[in-house]
């Protein structure tokens, strides 16, 4: 069964993770988000429902 032989795919996996971790990830993390979250609490006022009957 060739899928149990780690020789062909293990170095490829290690190289791809190293490439992602050392090259691609710092470039992605250097971007600043455009929409920063704001800490605002919405104020809601609960009005009673105006029923048409008493």
Automatic annotation (TrEMBL):
It is a single-pass membrane protein. Residues 35-54 are annotated as: Disordered. The keyword Signal applies. GO terms for cellular component: mitochondrial membrane; proton-transporting ATP synthase complex. It is found in: Mitochondrion membrane. Keywords: ATP synthesis, CF(0), Hydrogen ion transport, Ion transport, Membrane, Mitochondrion, Signal, Transmembrane, Transmembrane helix, Transport. GO terms for molecular function: proton transmembrane transporter activity. Residues 35-48 have a biased composition (Low complexity). It holds the Pfam family ATP-synt_8. One of its GO terms (biological process) is proton motive force-driven ATP synthesis. Belongs to the ATPase protein 8 family. This is ATP synthase complex subunit 8. It comes from Eclectus roratus. The gene is ATP8.
